[in-house]
Amino acid sequence: MKQKVLILIVLTAFAWSPVFSAPDTPETRRKEAERYLQVSPPKALFEDMADKMAANLPADQRDQFKKLMTTQVDIAALSKAMTDAMVKNFTTEELKALADFYGSPVGKSAMQKFGAYMADIMPVVQAEIMKAAAKMNH
Fold it and tell me: What is the pLDDT of residues 48-83, one digit of tens each?
């Protein structure tokens, strides 16, 4: 009986050990970052954000703005920069959690609202940056 208890304790200790967790290497980070970008494609996010941000512009400028933002922005370059930055700044475990969440139904629902969220806060962000810049110039 003692031997079974000892085996159970050893197995439990190893189960909690980082030895069994996913390795955290640039390769595993890149794999999870790419999985994240598959479940949350930058192109779709950018198009939604441009559409929502255009609503804050005068009506005669909206279509031109959306066209500019959706045809002139290099999504491949943006995706590469996002992947590289994620690999640099997040662990494999964090990227896996992000991909798992944003790939889930609730994560997908949240992402569908992200463009509207960004459109709501962008005018405030821009105004605050302008105020801060004006203070620096005086």
Answer: 888 888 888 899 999 998 888 888 889 999 999 999
Distance CA(116)–CA(110), nearest Å, equals: 10
- Tell me the one-letter amino acid at 38: Q
| Residue 87: burial class (beta carbons within 10 Å; 0-12, 13-18, 19+) | buried
What global pTM score does this model have? 0.66
**Helices in 1-136 by DSSP H: which ranges?**
2-16, 26-39, 42-54, 59-71, 75-89, 92-103, 105-112, 114-136
Token pair for 133: 């810049």
Q: What is the dihedral of CA 12, 16, 20, 25, to 10 degrees?
A: -170
Crossing angle of helices 42-54 and 59-71, rounded to 10°: 170
| Cβ contact 108:102 at 8 Å | yes
Distance (Å, whole) CA 63 – CA 104: 32
Which of 75, 55, 54 lies closest to 65, judged by CA? 54
Q: Which residue has the tokens 């662990």?
A: 91
